Amino acid sequence: MLKKVLIILVLLVTSLGYGQEKWEDFTGKQKAFFYQLTRKIENLKPTIHPLFEFTDSIPYINDTLPDYPYVESFIESDSSKLICHHTEFARKNRGLLGDVGMHYAAWELDLLLQFRNSTKLKYAYLKPKFEYFVQLILENAPSNLATINTNGKYELSPSILNYLSPNLTIGEKMAAIKNSGFTPDEKYAILQSIYAAQEKYMHIRANEIVDILTQNNINTTHYMLAAGDGEDWNDLESIIRTKYNRALPDPKALFNYQLKTKRSEDKSNKNILVSDAPVIKMSTKVNHQTHLHIDAWAYHPERQTTIVVQKGGSSYVLYGKNEQRYVSPDSTFGEGVTYWSLIKNLEEVWIADLKEKIYGKKGFDYYIALYEKKQAKTRMHIKVTEEKLDAIRYTPAAAPKMKKSRKAKKKKKKSAGLSYQDSNYVPHGKLTKTAKKRQIQQHNLIALNGQLETELATLRQLKKEKEEAFDLLSKFETKLDQMKKNMGFNLMAYEKDKLGNYLFTDGATFNVQTQDLTFPEADEVDYFEVILVSFGESVFDKNLAEFFVHFNLSHTLSKDVFVLDEFSTKIKKSGAYSKSDSIQTMEFFHELSNKKMPITIQLNGLGVANGTPPYPISVNTKPVVADETHKNKLFYYLQIQKGSSLAYNLTVWSNEFIPTDQNIKRKIIVDQNPQLNPIEVETAVQAKAFFDNYKVELTALATLWIKDTKQRKTVLKRIKSLKAKTVLVNGEEIKI
């Protein structure tokens, strides 16, 4: 116990970064890893990759394709050429950020496990990381496996180090440890502690990476879950790997299998088994939205990925497709096997056939009853036959008549003069009627007893088979109940919007692009379970397909993702945009290019900053008219939020001074809305003016920046269609 306390104290004050606290601390190779990773993974490329800016020019191959290998090699040699836009990272989807961090963490863990014994200088930086990893193992390993070295540090027994190789599957590790000298409980604890340490290491490191990229403390919970039989990965489709981790062992070995033990049939030993439907328990957070992000690293193209989230008695089931790793509530699947098809096959074929054999018209009960009648009838015939035999035994028998055959007579003539002994002639008598009857009944009795034995043997076999069928039916129904329990008994209904996202009837949503299942805010904590289901080609197939999924759990105060977030005192001209502004604006253009994405526009006058009015004025206060010594200052806050639609929200506010110029537009608003004071009128007018001018600048930027002709045409058309006819002032819509 003391050992574990000391180990935990060491872990609490240890960081996995070992000097990597900011972007500049990464090497060129490490930065190039981020660049290539986010460029190659589908849902990271449009959202995360642009935030890594290569500051040199990118050459093109045959003037058509960017020469990315050149770029990555350049970054390796000069890491300063890749800039990380931290402020933009901070507003990105937490699940996608977690994906970036986890891929880096898995790469690093793969490296330190593969080269843990290397003496090469280039791997020296991995040594303290490996020592930390060992301490994580010791947190859960049996205490007798920890030893103290000459430096007074706890270290892992050398006998366990061989099981750390990332080249081994879980099946190979279980086979290797099976014949070791450890007790069954120690074997189980060793494997559990290794996989728990791998998951914890990657969880900590992934969060550190995200903190460096965002320059914020964004703490999420990572789970690396695997399901299957732990044997064969050859048939799987896996996530794209970069050139930096392609030569390393398969990172699927780093995923956490949930293990269990089962007694052997003779009860002499404990066997370690892999769970075919591992479960993770999670919870929501009070007054926060809860996001479960799903990142499938590997799937079987002919076995449908099936992830079940059970909360409050309801199930949110997410399914995969044959051709890609992303999931959704849509259960359609091409060629291959689905979990639902196995449930149906078990219930409607295996169980139905077995019930027919037991209860059907020609089932076990029918034949048992038939043979019960047959053996009863046979017993009755035996009894009657025995009675007849008894009667015959006590019936007086007549003397048999001697009858000679013609052959016997001739033989007698030839034997004349010879004695009986010398003649070879044996006189015989004909059977009496009584003897004949006795013989017939004896033969009948023998046949009936044989028939009875056959019928009794058949009856015993039928009853045995019925009992076995009942046992089998019980096992089938238990398996069916477990399969249905895995899926849940109340599947949550949903609707699909124009953008392809899903809205469940209880308000939960699933975003296909970000792969986020989001639960709405609630005033109390809710608990839920995530089940990753694995299965084979048939119901009772012991060769289960493997699935590897990274889950990320986070809680936020707002579900909105800010595509564009800008605070300024004036409208920027197209030539004054910074790289950060360009990133946000290009994201806005990207969303506009999706014709199905609806846009809502809200202009707000007399805005409020941080919940506090920036000016001491009310409708009944007489404002001070600005003179030459006072400059009126207007503040603009533009926020474009991405949810089920693009919400353009512009807020304008002012100080207590009103402008000296009063144009006709202002006069019309004053005449139509006498309840408004001058500052309220001014901010309403400026909101509309900002919106109109901003459209002009967006048109110029789209024409300048969007290279794809079709996309540019779509975006320009949508910018032109943006209309704002009212401004909201103090909760009241003002026509303008």
Task: Produce a short descriptive summary.
The protein has 736 residues and is α+β, with helices and mostly antiparallel strands. Among the domains are: 21-84, no CATH class; 136-329 and 492-556, no CATH class; 562-618 and 629-735, no CATH class. It is built from 18 helices and 29 strands.
Any key phrases for this structure?
41% helix, disordered N terminus, 18 helices, alpha+beta, single chain, 736 residues, 19% strand, coiled coil, 9-stranded mixed beta sheet, 6-stranded mixed beta sheet
Q: Can you offer a commentary on this structure?
A:
The structure is a single chain. Helix 6 (127-140) packs across helix 9 (184-214). Among the domains are: 21-84, no CATH class; 136-329 and 492-556, no CATH class; 562-618 and 629-735, no CATH class. Mean pLDDT is 82; it is low at 1-13, 607-632 and 656-662. By secondary structure, the protein is of the alpha+beta class. Strands 7, 8, 9, 13, 16, 17, 18, 19 and 21 form a 9-stranded mixed sheet that branches.
